[in-house]
Design goal:
By secondary structure, this protein is of the alpha/beta class. About 35% of the residues lie in helices and about 20% in strands. The protein starts with a strand and ends with a strand.
Length: about 400
């Protein structure tokens, strides 16, 4: 139904760099961005490693040339990434084409309100910060910075959020509701999410090891990641360049558990199958899978099962790039969309770092070195709490 959806711009700020070029340098040199905690205020500072953006909040305000005491870290990261995506695409937001912004987040302004919570309760101070707490605030800040007014909304479906943002934007283009959409997600690190994952006992104190038999958990990260998607007619009208095409997508829910994936991978299996069906591709045409691959015992087992359910004995080359960036929650699918498109553009598979021993149940082995390969079609998986399973397929133009 409707027009094809094409990607024309990429924007990324994460632990592996302040822009897409820096991220590609880290990826192609197998250099992780996960390391010592510098910015997050936590008593566990010397016990864990995280995928932090290397800039302070003041540095970020200088970086985007926008200073406001009410701007929180989530908004700052989102503005930085969305701005890069728009500049990279070359679109003119004043050219009359209908432009939307669909951003996703879980942390939103929590990263700032938690710092002043005691003062708010005990001293009735800093109450103005509450106005920046809700999920939609970072989206509104990004929209105001860019000047997007036609359509602005926020998605929050845990770790599948940015994938669902890409899906919604693509559907709106296909149905003729918008000509182009800036889609993706942003999450900063916060004490709330760090302590929450720590309570679940799924944080690894060392570098995460996705799909390894001895995996102990995930490393949290933070990032802003956006792509510009356009209809074919909008792209032709401005003589723009397509980097890749959004060929297929699907969202399912296995409703198995509040935080755990189903052991049989049923939700993930269905999402992959439906995305393939929409794309018109056969399973054998997928050249690379950018796995959700958190490094937790449950997720990696479930996702491995789903891959086997769909691909049988011919699981394509795969890796989890969370070993570079950490798990960036709502931004994860945006980060991995950018990485998937970099794979297509450069015909490279970026490695699953820290892997040594296959999971005993399945014996699947991810790509562990930077690998040159012809990449025409990439499957990117993002699975969130509450059984929310989303799969995207990006293809070479």
């Amino acid at each position: 139904m409707g027009e094809g959806v094409f990607i024309s711009g990429l924007g990324l700020i994460s632990a592996i760099g302040n822009n897409v070029a820096e991220a590609y340098h880290h990826l192609s040199n197998a250099k992780t961005g996960i390391g010592k905690i510098n910015h997050l205020q936590t008593r566990y500072k010397d016990e864990y490693v995280l995928g932090e953006v290397k800039l302070s909040n003041n540095d970020l305000m200088d970086f985007i040339s926008h200073h406001s005491p009410l701007l929180n870290r989530t908004s700052l990261l989102g503005i930085a990434a969305a701005r890069e995506a728009v500049l990279h695409s070359g679109i003119d937001l004043k050219d009359g084409l209908r432009t939307g912004l669909i951003s996703s987040t879980t942390v939103a302004g929590m990263c700032k309100t938690e710092l002043f919570f005691n003062d708010m309760i005990e001293k009735n101070e800093h109450l103005e910060i509450l106005d920046t707490h809700d999920c939609g605030e970072s989206t509104e800040e990004i929209a105001d910075y860019l000047g997007v007014k036609d359509y602005v909304t926020t998605i929050s479906t845990a770790c599948s959020s940015a994938a669902n943002a890409i899906m919604l934007g693509s559907r709106m283009i296909k149905h003729g509701m918008l000509d182009r959409v800036i889609v993706g997600g942003v999450d900063s690190l916060s004490k709330f999410t760090f302590n929450g994952f720590n309570t679940l006992m799924i944080l690894d104190k060392e570098w995460c090891k996705p799909f390894d038999e001895n995996r102990k958990g995930l490393n949290l990260g933070e990032a802003g990641a956006f792509v510009v998607i356009e209809s074919e007619s909008a792209l032709k009208k401005r003589n723009g360049k397509a980097l890749a095409q959004v060929m297929g997508y699907a969202n399912t829910n296995d409703a198995y558990h509040q935080t755990a994936s189903s052991p049989d991978g049923s939700g993930a299996t269905k999402a992959i199958q439906l995305a393939l069906q929409m794309s018109g591709l056969n399973a054998s045409q997928i050249d690379y899978i950018n796995m959700h691959g958190t490094g937790t015992p449950n997720n990696d087992l479930s996702e491995s099962k789903a891959a086997i359910n769909v691909f049988g004995n011919n699981v394509p080359k795969f890796s989890s790039t969370k070993s570079f960036t950490g798990h960036t929650l709502a931004a994860a699918a945006g980060v991995e969309a950018v990485i998937s498109i970099l794979s297509i553009l450069n015909n490279k598979i970026f490695p699953n770092l820290n892997f040594t021993t296959p999971i005993s149940e399945f014996k699947l082995t991810p790509v562990t070195k930077v690998t040159d390969a012809e990449i025409k079609n990439v499957l990117s998986n993002s699975f969130g709490f509450g059984g929310n399973c989303s799969s995207l397929i990006f293809s070479k133009v």
